[in-house]
């Protein structure tokens, strides 16, 4: 403003009016857009303006105010939410998409990406909107470039970028350079490389003018196809142990281009011959794909030849291939061709049926052998149990006879309490003797906490044995990994499983001494209750994870395994290693929820319930998991550096089963150990000199080597491994 009392010049007056008009324009624009605290802006404009506010501005202000009321819940949700606010932004984006204002849609996407730049799905939706709606070259390409820069591991973003560059007529050299960057991005699956190669090959194919017999673009396409096949064979297969293209889709597309667009069936046949040599000759659909290509662009002779080879090689659906061959000969073949086709198909189907019958017989024989082995094992266990019981009876009788002899001679029993001679009677009452002496005459304390436990064990010994009824397996679950020291397991488990349904019976398993063995059978009234009980698997009971599984006879189903967790790639789940053993589920959730909504956390423990420093964290979607990997990998938790990666467990090595038709070797004889077997910490008492002596030439005491008669004629044999019992026998013989 000019100084008070001064008269502005025309130039100053013009500048002043222009400045005032700019301020008016800014206020009108601000009041026409729905913003928070619009009422304060309107009051400020009303106070500042010397002229009345125009009617148009008031109308736009009221309209923006109405729109603000619609957007206000979403803005308040963003203000109250915690980072990264992905769900709140998604709801806001859906609202703006329904409204349809391109500027507001772009702005809300940019606001969301500012806080969630590592979420591939959000970038994909934004780029799709720009490609289909705005179609502005600079804006579209800039968004795609930012997307692949923030999420380079997502192959879908690279493919969209290549398509957008082709759509907006970007130079070929720039597109090729971008494709090379994509190959070096480091994708997490072998199939991702197949997809990016396929997208680039499609782009090169669209550049070729196939009306010309030969061109620079066509040669470039062919060299790219050859490079793609070699790249998948060497680079990708070396990294992932698979090419990612078992069906050879890239080579199939190459063959189609050669046959349909280049009229080069010779090259197409060479490619298909290469495809079949890669293990695809046994699949009927691969032969039929080749037949259809030959039918459309080749001749009948090659069609017939392909089908004859297919009949000979196909192992999955030979009937289908035989039918196609007969159809071809019925339409175009001569009588000789028809007879040859009928004979070939009949012979092939006869061999197939014979092979299937033999395979079924072998399968039945293996199943029968397995049942016989199971029965033998069961019988051996029963005999072993009976022999142990007889041995215990003999030991008890011997101890009783010794006690009778001692009573006859009037000798006193020496008690653990070291009572002196003359105190009390010389012979203990029968009840006291049962408490004082154990199974093998070892003294046990009659008082203390062991007395009620011994009483309970004695009461369980008297309970008659109940054999398992396999007809009730559908309403029964098998519970294991329980604590051996659990008191009254029936009452504890009845209370735990009562929420699933009516419990008919709980059969806890005890040993001969009456001690709980850590597993039991829980029988329900209804099958649905048993299915609900499976959800209690891994529930912590007295500090140990309780295992709950279906009740299945392993003798009849030896391959039955229950593993409730996925063993395949799960992009929304993380595997974390290096955690401190003291880390709890709540502490880990506090660390992980900063990067997304955590659905579940599983701390990996051993059978005793002790943590192993590993965990699986499940997020709502792949985007949140990807963001968490980048933010959490290498993070320090309680002085431990953790490693975070996408959950992709390695394949489990299954035990090798004998092939059908091959005679299985007899099982190796089990080595005989002592009466208690060989424990984990049992040391071999054999001297090292005897263990290492593999030469039949024995050393004499004076250090000279003595020749053995057998050593000169027989080849050196491997020394027989000796157990502690064998070594004890050897010492006793000396």
Structure characterization notes:
With 734 residues, the protein is α+β, with helices and mostly antiparallel strands. Among the domains are: 10-73, no CATH class; 476-550, Alpha-Beta Plaits (2-Layer Sandwich); 573-646, Alpha-Beta Plaits (2-Layer Sandwich). The chain is 55% helix and 10% strand. It has 26 helices and 13 strands. The protein has helices at residues 10-31, 38-48, 55-80, 86-99, 102-115, 120-134, 137-150, 155-167, 172-183, 190-207, 216-240, 249-261, 265-280, 284-297, 300-313, 318-332, 335-409, 430-436, 450-461, 489-497, 527-533, 585-592, 622-632, 688-692, 709-713, 724-733; strands spanning 476-480, 503-510, 516-524, 539-541, 544-550, 570-577, 598-605, 611-619, 636-637, 640-641, 643-647, 698-699, 705-706. The strands form 4 sheets. It has a 5-stranded antiparallel β-sheet. It has a 4-stranded antiparallel β-sheet with strand order 7-8-6-11, covered by helices on one side. A hairpin with a 5-residue loop joins strand 2 (503-510) and strand 3 (516-524). The longest helix has 75 residues, at 335-409. The radius of gyration is 41 Å and the shape is flat.
List the helices and strands and how they pair.
Blueprint: H1 10-31, H2 38-48, H3 55-80, H4 86-99, H5 102-115, H6 120-134, H7 137-150, H8 155-167, H9 172-183, H10 190-207, H11 216-240, H12 249-261, H13 265-280, H14 284-297, H15 300-313, H16 318-332, H17 335-409, H18 430-436, H19 450-461, E1 476-480, H20 489-497, E2 503-510, E3 516-524, H21 527-533, E4 539-541, E5 544-550, E6 570-577, H22 585-592, E7 598-605, E8 611-619, H23 622-632, E9 636-637, E10 640-641, E11 643-647, H24 688-692, E12 698-699, E13 705-706, H25 709-713, H26 724-733
Antiparallel strand pairs: 1-3, 1-5, 2-3, 4-5, 6-8, 6-11, 7-8, 9-10, 12-13
Helix pairs in contact: 1-2, 3-4, 4-5, 5-6, 6-7, 6-8, 7-8, 8-9, 8-10, 10-11, 12-13, 13-14, 14-15, 15-16, 16-17
């Amino acid at each position: 403003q000019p100084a008070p009392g001064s008269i502005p010049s025309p130039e100053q007056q013009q500048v002043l009016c222009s400045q005032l008009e700019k301020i008016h324009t800014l206020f009108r624009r601000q009041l026409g857009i729905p913003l928070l605290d619009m009422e304060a802006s309107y009051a400020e404009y009303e106070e500042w303006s010397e002229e009345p506010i125009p009617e148009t501005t008031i109308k736009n202000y009221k309209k923006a105010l109405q729109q603000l009321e619609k957007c206000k819940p979403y803005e308040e949700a963003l203000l109250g939410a915690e980072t990264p606010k992905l769900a709140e932004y998604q709801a806001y984006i859906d609202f703006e998409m329904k409204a349809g204002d391109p500027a507001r849609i772009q702005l809300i996407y940019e606001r969301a990406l500012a806080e969630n730049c590592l979420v591939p799905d959000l970038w994909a939706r934004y780029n799709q909107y720009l490609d289909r709606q705005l179609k502005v070259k600079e804006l579209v390409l800039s968004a795609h470039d930012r997307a692949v820069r923030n999420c380079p591991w997502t192959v879908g973003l690279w493919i969209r970028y290549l398509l957008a560059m082709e759509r907006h007529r970007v130079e070929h050299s720039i597109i090729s350079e971008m494709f090379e960057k994509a190959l070096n991005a480091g994708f997490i699956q072998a199939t991702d490389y197949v997809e990016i190669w396929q997208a680039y090959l499609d782009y090169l194919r669209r550049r070729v003018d196939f009306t010309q017999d030969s061109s620079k673009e066509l040669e470039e396409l062919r060299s790219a196809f050859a490079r793609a096949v070699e790249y998948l064979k060497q680079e990708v297969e070396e990294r992932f142990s698979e090419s990612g293209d078992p069906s050879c889709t890239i080579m199939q597309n190459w063959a189609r281009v050669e046959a349909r667009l280049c009229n080069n069936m010779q090259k197409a046949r060479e490619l298909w011959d290469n495809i079949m040599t890669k293990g695809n000759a046994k699949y009927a659909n691969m032969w039929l794909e080749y037949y259809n290509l030959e039918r459309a662009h080749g001749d009948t002779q090659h069609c017939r030849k392909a089908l004859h080879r297919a009949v000979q090689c196909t192992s999955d659906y030979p009937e289908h291939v035989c039918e196609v061959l007969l159809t071809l000969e019925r339409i175009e073949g001569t009588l000789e061709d028809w007879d040859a086709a009928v004979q070939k198909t009949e012979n092939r189907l006869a061999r197939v049926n014979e092979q299937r019958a033999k395979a079924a017989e072998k399968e039945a024989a293996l199943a029968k052998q397995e049942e016989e082995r199971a029965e033998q094992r069961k019988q051996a266990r029963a005999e072993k149990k009976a022999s142990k019981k007889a041995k215990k009876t003999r030991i008890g009788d011997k101890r009783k006879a010794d006690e009778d002899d001692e009573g006859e001679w009037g000798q006193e029993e020496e008690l653990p309490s070291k009572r002196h001679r003359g105190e009390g009677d010389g012979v203990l009452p029968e009840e006291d003797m049962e408490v004082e002496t154990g199974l093998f005459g070892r003294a046990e304390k009659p008082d203390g906490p062991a007395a009620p436990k011994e009483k309970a064990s004695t009461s369980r010994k008297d309970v008659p044995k109940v054999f398992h009824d396999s007809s009730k397996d559908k309403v029964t679950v098998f519970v294991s990994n329980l604590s051996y020291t659990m008191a009254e397991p029936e009452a504890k488990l009845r209370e735990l499983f009562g929420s699933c349904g009516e419990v008919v019976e709980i059969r806890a398993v005890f040993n001969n001494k009456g001690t709980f063995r850590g597993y039991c059978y829980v029988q329900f009234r209804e099958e649905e209750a048993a299915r609900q009980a499976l959800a209690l698997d891994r529930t912590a009971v007295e500090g140990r994870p309780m295992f709950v599984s279906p009740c299945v006879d392993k003798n009849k189903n030896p391959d039955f395994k229950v593993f409730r967790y996925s063993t395949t790639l799960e992009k929304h789940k993380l595997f974390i290693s290096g955690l401190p053993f003291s880390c709890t589920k709540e502490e880990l959730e506090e660390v992980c929820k900063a990067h997304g909504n955590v659905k579940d956390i599983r701390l990996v423990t051993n059978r005793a319930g002790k943590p192993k420093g590993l965990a699986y964290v499940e997020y709502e979607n792949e985007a949140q998991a990807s963001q968490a990997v980048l933010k959490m990998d290498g993070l320090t938790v309680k002085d431990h550096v953790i490693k975070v990666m996408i959950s992709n467990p390695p394949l489990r090595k299954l035990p090798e089963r004998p092939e059908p038709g091959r005679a299985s070797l007899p099982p190796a004889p089990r080595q005989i150990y002592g009466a208690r077997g060989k424990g984990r910490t049992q040391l071999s008492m054999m001297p090292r000199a005897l263990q290492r002596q593999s030469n039949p030439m024995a050393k004499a005491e004076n250090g000279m080597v003595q020749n053995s008669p057998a050593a000169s004629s027989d080849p050196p044999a491997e020394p027989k491994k000796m157990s502690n019992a064998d070594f004890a026998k050897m010492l006793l013989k000396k």
